[in-house]
Every structure is written in C-alpha cells, then in structure tokens.
Amino acid sequence: MAAMVSRAVLLIGVVLQLTAQMCGCMAYVGRGDGFSVELIHRDYSVKSPFYDPSLSQHGRMLAAARRSTGRAAALARSYATAGNGSPDGGVSEVISIPPYDFLMYINIGMPPTRMLAFADTGSDLLWVKCSNGTADDLPKATAGSGGPPPTVVFNPSNSSTFGRVDCQSGTCKAFTGTGVSCDGKSNCKYLYSYFDGSQTSGVLSTETLTFDDAPGGCIGCRHRQQLQVARFNFGCSTSTKGSFTGDGLVGLGDGNFSLANQLGAATSLGRRFSYCLVPSFVNTPSTLNFGARAAVTEPGAATTLLIHSDVDAYLTIALESVRIGDRSFTLAQQPRLVVDTGTTVTLLDKELLDPMVEELTRNIKLRRVKSPDEEMPICYDVSGVGETAFGKIIPEVKLGLRGGGVVTLKAENTFVMLHEGTMCMALKEVSKEDGGMVMGNIAQQNMHIGIDLDKRTATFANLDCATSYPWPSPPASL
Fold first, then answer.
1. Average of pLDDT values for 135-148?
2. Cβ(344)–Cβ(367) below 8 Å
3. Which residues form the Peptidase A1 domain (predicted)?
4. Other residues' Cβ atoms within 10 Å of the Cβ of residue 220
C-alpha cells in the first residue's frame, strides 16, 4: 500500500511539473480566496446576446433540448471511437452558443482584448479567433435580435505580450489534440477536432490573460479583484470548421492545456473549480468559482473519484447504481458518466433507462400527453397541478457513486416544462453503438459541483444556487 501511495504521489508530482513547464507562467492574484465567474445561459438570461424575446420560456427550453441532442450523441460516440477503456484506470461572465450552453468573457493580450468564448467542461484547450491584421479578418456587422453577437477577432500585432510556442519545445510535444506540425519558422501548428465534426487550427501561442472578478463574487469586498496570468498557452486560431459563432472556446475539462490546470500551475489557486447552475426559470446568473471558493462544503455533499476516460479532457465518474424509492438498478458493466455542462438533457444506457422510466411512470399518477418534441417523448399534463406541486409528487432519483456517495436528483433535475401545462422527462436513451452516458446540465441544476484535479475528485451538493450567490439584478432596460 505504501508503495502504491508513493507511486501515486510521484505521478501527481510529474503531472504538475509538466503543466508548470508547459505554462511557463507568472501571475498575481487579487485575493487569496479565489475568484468567481458569472455564468449566463444562452437562451434564458436577458444578459445573453442570444436571448430571443419572441420565444416563450417553454420555447427556450425546447430549443435548448433540441440543440443539445447532437452534442450528447457526439460525446457518447467519442467513447466508441476512442475504445472501451476502464473505470479504474479567474473570473468573467458566461453566456452560451450552440452546441454549448455557456460562454465566458476573457481578456487577452496587453492591452486586453475582451472576447466572448464558449465554456466547455468537455474539452481542455483554450483558443480564440486570431487575425493577421488585415481588414478581411475583422467583424463586418452587428447582430439583430435573437441572432449571434458580432465576432471579436484577436490581433496579435496589437499586443505587447504575444508569443509563439516553438515547435521543438516541451509544450508543443505535450499537445494532445488531433495533431501538431511545424511551419517554416519553427512555430508549433495545431489541429484540434471535436467529436461533432467541428475543428479549430492555428498556432500554439502564449499571451497574458486577465480575469475580472464578477460582481457579487466576493461579498463584502470593497474593490473588484483581478487575476492576471502571463505566458498562458492558448490556440491562436486562424481557421475553424463548424458552428463556432463565438470568439473562441475555454476548455474546463481534464487536460494539461485546460484553464484549471494552467491556473493551478501559475498561481496558488490549485487545480480546482466549482459551479452552481440555477434552474432555467430563475432569472439569476449561475456561478463558476476558482481557488478556495471552489470548495464544496455544504451538508450532505457526495465525493467520488474522477476516473480515467478514453478521452483525456472528459470529466468522468463511475455510476454504481440508481435508486428510485425502494428499487435499485444497476448495469452488468459499471458505467462511466461524463459530467457535461454543454449538454442539456441526460443521456443514459437503455438497459438502465428503461427500468428507471418504468418505475417513475408507475409512481406518477398524472395523465400522459403527447410530447411537443420527439426528443422527450414521456410527458404529463400538469395544468391542474402546477409546476411547484408537480415537483412534490415526482420520486427522487438517487445516483450511487463509487466510494459510497449519493447524488439526489429532484423533480427539477429529471423533468422540464416543454409547453404550458406539459412536463416532460429530461432523460434520453443512448444507443449501444455510442455507449457513453452523459449527465446533462438539467440534472446539475441547483447543485454545487466541485472538480478538484489535484485530488482527482468530483463533489456534488444540493444547493439553492440563486440565493447562495446573490448577483446584482440586470438593468431594467434589458
């Protein structure tokens, strides 16, 4: 046992050393307790540039569910592509763009360029769209109501702190994307592919990142704090393929190039973050925390180990059982569950989902109705019950995690209102060909979820996210 512990400590030390060498960062932090990020949902928040006032609240939920279906399937297919594997084995505002549900503002360069990037727990590279300084690279128009915001393009020639990663460096060799190559000037060129078919390519570079502590992130603080990190490794993207209508992407997953890993190497914050997602019907921002603020200390918190995934960037846990009332369900082979903020619905294996649906429908004494959308076929008429009362008659779903922890999914985590008076189950089958399972962001609502890449743990605690993080209300004009 002692030898195993020693090898584990040595392995962690090697990973941290590699990350530190890759980053080559220096940083200063405004406060020792960490930072908090304001997360704004693409569809639901009036702060979002994608907010469509012509849609009803139910219409926004339906749009989000449809948008996430392809992403959920792509995440699951990635397991089949990568192999079977083994289960043993700063601060900004956030908004969202398809196929992701959240984005965050980052400030890059000196002087800083403010950019709106996807926030994704399913990948690890931070990249932004880059310009070569010509007029053709600059945004042409602004967005109308409900359309995408104008794209901001980073121009490296305007920054005094921009640098390129050398092709022979350890950083270039450590890149785990689709591939790297060298250009004629020995720059490290990268290609990063996503499982939905989208891609980004360009030059691995270094730059100064500045994060502003979001309003309300530090209760009682007299001044807004900042985190600044120099020589942060990122992708300076000169070409994209797919629906990247934002300015870039911030990888929050489990990989050497992720935001958490690089912040941990550059600062005293550690390689950890947490988030708390408010329900869709609450007009309050969600929250992302770094450093000491990422600690999940609420009563009843359940902690489990992050397990090795066939895709390095995925945040994956082992699901040992599911309990509804006095019935418990398991799979013959212990399934892996990807914790993903970019997917709306939860994706489950048919062998597990079918008995769960049977038990839930047996306990729900309401009239079944036709679904507004084929992606969520199991729906109930709640017009005479009300959303609040409906939540009290839905059985809780308890997820048994490796290590003995239990995560409780309440009605708001398993059902959504897709139409006035119609509540539908937010659980969807994953095909045997795809194989992976995904815990979507509906299942994560009103939970404080902490990811600690140093301890290799994920922690879940039920929490009223809206009242626990009292962000300022948006202006009335919005």
1. 38
2. no
3. 102-461
4. 4
Q: Indicate the Cα dihedral angle 170, 176, 177, 179, nearest 10°.
A: 60
Write the class of the CATH domain 296-468.
Answer: mainly beta
Q: What is the pLDDT of residue 474?
A: 43
Q: What share of the chain is helix, strand, coil (3-state, %, to 5)?
A: 20, 35, 45
Domains 25-292 and 296-468 share a fold: yes
Tokens of 320: 């040992």
Pairing of strands 457-462, 188-193: unpaired
- Between 32 and 333, residue with greater pLDDT: 333
Burial class (CB in 10 A: 0-12, 13-18, 19+), 386: exposed
2.40.70.10, 3.30.572.10, 3.10.20.280, 3.30.70.100: CATH of 25-292: 2.40.70.10
Q: How far is CA 382 from CA 33, 413, 416, in A?
A: 45, 17, 11
Q: Give the whole-angstrom CA distance, residue 172 versus residue 396.
A: 47
Contact 302, 405 (CB under 8 A): yes
| In the chain, where the domains are located | 25-292, 296-468
> How confident is the model at residue 427, as a pLDDT?
93
The CA distance from 343 to 252, in Å, is 14
The Cα 291–Cα 57 span in angstroms is: 34
Tell the residue number behind the tokens 């900004």, with chain if given: 92
* Cβ atoms of 407 and 333 closer than 8 Å: no
Q: Which of 93-97, 131-135, 140-144 has the lowest mean pLDDT?
A: 140-144
Residue 211 or residue 146, greater confidence: 211
What's the mean pLDDT in 304-308? 93
Query: Measured between alpha carbons, how far is 257 from 123 in angstroms, rounded to an integer?
Result: 9
What is residue 466's three-state secondary structure? Answer: helix
Bin 428: left if φ > 0, else alpha if -120 < ψ < 50, else beta: beta
pTM strictly above 0.70:
yes
> Amino acid identity, residue 83?
G
Q: Are 321 and 304 in contact (CB under 8 A)?
A: no
Burial of 2 (0-12, 13-18, 19+ CB in 10 A): exposed
Which positions ≥6 away from 135 have C-beta within 8 Å? none
